[in-house]
Amino acid sequence: MQRPVQNERNKSVNLINHLAPEKRRNKPSTSSVKSIIPEANSHQSKMVHEPKKIETGILVDVCGGDVPDELYDSPVLGSPRVAQQQPKSSLSLHSQEEIGVGSLVEVATDVDQHYYGVVRWIGIIDDTATAGVELEQNVCGLGDGSRGGMRLFSCAPGRALFVPLPLCRRDARFRDTPPPEPTDVHRPQNYDQPDCPVVPGIVPPLNSLGDLAGKNRGIQGHHNSCYLDATLFAMFTFTSVFDALLYRPPEPEDSPHYSEVQCVLREEVVNPLRRHGYVRADRVMKLRTLLERLSDVPGLTSEEKDPEEFLNGLVAQLLRAEPFLKLSSGQEAYCYQLFVEKDEQITLPSVQQLLEQSFATSGVKLSEVPAALIIQMPRFGKQYKLYERVQPSPLLDVTDLIEGLPRQCTVCGALARWECSACAGGGALEAGALCAACLRLAHSTRPSHKATPLTICEEFANILDTCSVPRVYMELFAVLCIETSHYVAFVKTGVGHDAPWCFFDSMADRKGERNGYNIPEIVCLPELGAWLSEEGGRDRQPPTHAKRLLADAYMCFYRSPDVAMYR
C-alpha cells in the first residue's frame, strides 16, 4: 500500500506545538496562545486579518484574499450547535467551494506543514463556524470527535481536529489542477489530472479494452482505497452482471439514503469509468464517506480493508441486493469462502478442484445456478496461504454443485440416480455420481459406503437416459490479488476464451510526495487468456504478470451470462 511520504523537517510529535502564530510582533504583548481547547471562562481578543495571510494564533490560512473581516484569535469553544443556513451575500470563498460534511480538505500550519482529512461535522461553536475534521493520520494531543462532553462525530483517537471553517481548503491533491512543486523546474505545463465529470443516465459496460490502457486510467487510489478500487473495477468495467445494483428502484424497506448511495455509485464512479476511463479519488472518497457513515463497517475512509468488508457494507447493507448464492441448507451469501484440507501431493491446485473439495466436505449444494459466483481463496489474513500458488480455472463446471440438476454416472456416463460421498473420497464430486447398475457393482466390495438418491425431474429422465447430460459452466472474468496489503485486479476485457485480459493497479505510480497524488494504470495482457485456457499451460513458463496471478490470488469472480440476463 503506497502512503504519502512525510517531510521529516516538518514532522512533529505534537500538532499543537506548531499551531502558534508566525509573526509574534503583530500581536499585543498581553496575548498568549492557548491550547486548541481553551478554558470555557478564558477571555480571548480578536484581531483583524492581514491581506495575504491570516494569523489566528492557531493556524494559517493558505488561501489569502477574500476572507471575513474578523476571526477569533483562539476562540472560546462553548456548546456546539449545527450551523444555520447563511444568506448568499455572506458566504465566504470557502463556502463558495461548497465545503461540507464529507469534503476532502487540507489545513496548513505556520511552519508550512499541511494536514489532510475529511470533514465529519460542521457547526457553530461560540458564534464561530467550525469544522470537525478527521485527519488521515494520528496526531498527538487530538481527540476522537467529542467536544465539551458531547459526541459530535466518531473517529480513532488522535485524529479529530476542530478548526474554524474558513481555514479549511479543498484538498489540493484532488483538484483538477494540482499546485506545482517549485523544486521541479522541468515540470511540464499539462500537469493536470484528467477531468472526472458526473455522468448521469445509463452507460453500458465496455466490450473491449480499446484505448483504455495506459497511465491515469481506471480508478485513482487514495489513502488505503485499493481494496475498493480493485473490486469496483472488476465488477463494473467490462461486465453487466452486477448492473442490477445500479438501477434497482428504491423499496419501502430500503435505507432513506439508498437513492443517494446508488446515485453516487452509478453517476460518479461506474458511469465515468465506462465512458471516460477514469475516476478521480475524490469521487471515490464521496462513496467511501457514505459507506462509513451509513454502514456498520468502520474505517472505510482511512483504514486497510478487504473486499468482502466493502461488499458487506455496500451490497448487503446499503443496496440490499439479493444474495448471489443460495445454498441447499437455506443459507444465503454474497461470496463463498473455500474451506479445504491441504493435500501435500498437490503443488498447484485449480479453483475447480478446491471448490469441489470444499462442497464435498461441507455436504451442501447450490440450490440454483448463480448469475455471479465470487470465490475467496483458502488463505487467511494477508500472510497465511494454504497453497503457495492456485490456478484460476477459466471455466468452472458447476453441474455437480447444483441441487436437483441432472448428473452423469462417473462409470458409464448414463444418467446418475445415486450419490456417494465416500466414493468421491473428498475429491471431485462427479466421482460420487452413479447410476443404479454401477452403484451395485461399486458397493458390492464397499459395504460401509452409504449412497443417497438424487432428486431428478422425471420429465427429463427419459430424454437424458438416451443422450448426454448437459454441463453447466461459469466463466472467469476477474481475479483480485493481494501482495503486502495492496490489492490489484486482473480483468477479462471481453467475452470468449480468447478475449484479452488487463491488469489494473490504482496506485501504480505517484506524482509528488506529501502533497502529491497516486496515478492509476491499466496494462494490456494479450497472452494471459490463452495461457489460462491452454491445456497443459501450467507446465510452461507463464507470461508477464501471470506469476503474480498464481501466487497472490485472493478472490475469483465467475459469471453465468445466460442466467444474468434474467436477473
Structure description:
- The longest helix is centred in the middle third of the chain and has 19 residues, at 258-276.
- This protein starts with 45 loop residues before the first strand and ends with a helix.
- The strands form eight sheets. Strands 11, 16, 17, 20, 24, 25, 26, 27 and 28 form a nine-stranded mixed β-sheet that branches.
- It is 20% helix and 21% strand.
- It has 567 residues and is of the alpha+beta class.
- It is built from 13 helices and 28 strands.
- Mean pLDDT is 76; it is low at 1-14, 19-96 and 176-191.
Please indicate the percent range of residues in DSSP E strands (runs of 2 or more). Answer: 15-25%
Beta strands, count: 28
Alpha carbon gyration radius: 29 Å
User: Globular, elongated, flat, extended or rod-shaped: what is the shape?
Assistant: elongated
Mind describing the biggest β-sheet?
Answer: 9 strands, mixed
Straight-line distance between termini: 36 Å
Give me the secondary-structure category. alpha+beta
- In DSSP terms (H or I, runs of 4 or more residues), the helix count works out at 13
Low-confidence stretches: 1-14, 19-96, 176-191
Helix content: 10-25%
Give the overall pLDDT as a whole number: 76
Short structural summary:
With 567 residues, the chain is α+β, with helices and mostly antiparallel strands. Helices cover 20% and strands 21% of the residues.
